Amino acid sequence: MGQLDGKIVIITGAGTGIGKGIARAFAHEGAQLVIASRNAQKLDETAGEIRAQGGTVLVIPTDVTDETQVVALFAKTIQAFGRLDILVNNAGVFDGGPLEELSLQTWQKVLDVNLTGPFLCTREAMKIMKRQKGGRIINIGSISAQMPRLHSAPYTTAKHGLVGLTKTAALEGRDFGVVVSCLHPGNVATEYRQASSAAMDQEPMMTPAELAQTAVTIAALPGHVNMLEAIVLPVRQLYLGRG
Q1: Of 88, 110, 95, whose CA–CA distance to 27 is shortest?
Q2: What is the rounded average pLDDT of the residues 143-156?
């Protein structure tokens, strides 16, 4: 018997990296998944791995910055399963550079994916979960919401904003049994990080599966209990006083 048996879960950005790790961990605990991202091929690969292990997964390619596509994601989930128990807002991008060199396009792209996307998904989840009188939303933040990395203004700003969205949604949801949390990862050995510069690759890393253990813990908490924020990072990662 899994900790999430029968739970209906939407995970954004689930084709690779952290989202894929969480999807695999949730499926192992008995959740029935709806996985979304812009990359349909990667979603199909993730779904194939989960189904091979006996899991239930519905693939819905979605750009979380597109309001129409987000509304459709949640409508299709209800059509298929009749309810929504957990939303994991994981889709994200990183870009940056010195402030004086940042383009508006770069700034807008990062905020659109990392903050507007979670807003749109949270809004649609709230409509469902408030009617149900229950549900849980887990936002994937970053330690950059606590301590910024140099030349990361768009990403850091978006992740700070995600903390604000988390706390606001937690306040609005609590009278309806809707619980909202923010999980802040440190360095995770995703496909993106593994393809980055040698200097970045030398930083201490944890795996998506290791981070996903905490996501499972949050998701499996009793309905009257919330882990409002959690920071998970490699022990030797530069964090306090970095910059």
Answers
A1: 88
A2: 92
In which order are the strands placed within the sheet that holds 229-232? 57-59, 32-36, 8-12, 86-89, 135-140, 178-185, 229-232
CA 237, CA 135: separation in Å to the nearest integer? 33
Q: Quick check: pTM over 0.85?
A: yes
148 pLDDT higher than 70: yes
Give the active site residues: 155
- DSSP labels for 160-208? HHHHHHHHHHHHHHGGGTEEEEEEEE--B--HHHHTS-HHHHTS--B-H
Burial of 70 per CB tally in 10 Å (0-12, 13-18, 19+)? buried
Cβ atoms within 10 Å, residue 133: 11
What secondary structure, in 3-state letters, does 77-112 show?
Answer: HHHHHCCCCEEEECCCCCCCCCHHHCCHHHHHHHHH
The 3-state DSSP class for residue 151 equals: coil
Percent of the chain with pLDDT over 70: 94
Q: Are 10 and 87 in contact (CB under 8 A)?
A: yes
Ordered structural domains, the chain, with CATH: 8-232 (3.40.50.720)
